[in-house]
Amino acid sequence: MKEVLIIDDEPKAVELLSNYVNRLPWLKCVGTYRNPLEALAFLQKHPVDLLLLDIHMPQISGVEFYRALPQKPKVIFTTAYSEYAVASYELEAIDYLVKPITFERFLQACSRCTKEETTVAAVPESNPQAQEIFIKSGPKLYRLNWEEVLFLEKSENYVVFHTCDRKILSRQNMQDVQEILPDFFCKIHKSYIISLRHLNVVERHQVSIGKHEIPIGQSYRPAFFKILSERWGQDKVFDAV
């Protein structure tokens, strides 16, 4: 897992980048700083693998800050101004992201650094209800039992497999994944497929699985409650449609 430090004087940018980092299972955010001089003190005691570094900051530019570092981690520059691109490439930056930054563009940049872009391995068509799936993450292949999966989340061109203790990101179409799922999975939103075996609480507009609250799409609600009724009996499912 790569340790990441975020340095940006804009609170919204820090929040966005922190969210993006948390969505990638091979990255760990170890700190965020709006003041680059405070970040410098942190780096002197805590070296990191990757900097997400804003260029245009009031105290010192990101380019000047990076040049001043005695030990230079890998860096991805972020900025609202495209004119700094040449300077960033002279410093051998991994990438140069112009705001507003999409998650897909962020993922491309981080994949260059970590080489951890993930894909899901093919599941034999002869056994669409297989209890296990193989997911490739970088050079490794992970075996995942469907019983472990709490829910699946669509994130642009990726699917995130959520389990109790990890998230696995796969460059995969949600519809393709849905076709190989066991019958105890149910799509309740355009971006979510849940495991009925891990379902804890059902409300009118959302369900709870562990600590996760997942929305129920309006167009999916009737079919979802019909499945609940058929699975557990009408008397055990309240009328929330």
Automatic annotation (TrEMBL):
- The answer on whether this UniProt entry bears the keyword Cytoplasm reads no
* Secreted as UniProt keyword: no
Show the GO MF annotations. DNA binding; phosphorelay response regulator activity
Mind telling me what this protein is named?
Answer: Two component transcriptional regulator, LytTR family
Please list the residue ranges annotated as the HTH LytTR-type domain. Answer: 133-230
4-aspartylphosphate modifications at: D54
InterPro entries per UniProt: CheY-like_superfamily, LytR-like, LytTR_DNA-bd_dom, Sig_transdc_resp-reg_receiver
Q: Which Pfam families match?
A: LytTR, Response_reg
Record's SUPFAM superfamilies?
CheY-like
Response regulatory domain boundaries: 3-114
Keywords, A to Z, come to:
Phosphoprotein
SMART domains (alphabetical): LytTR (SM00850), REC (SM00448)
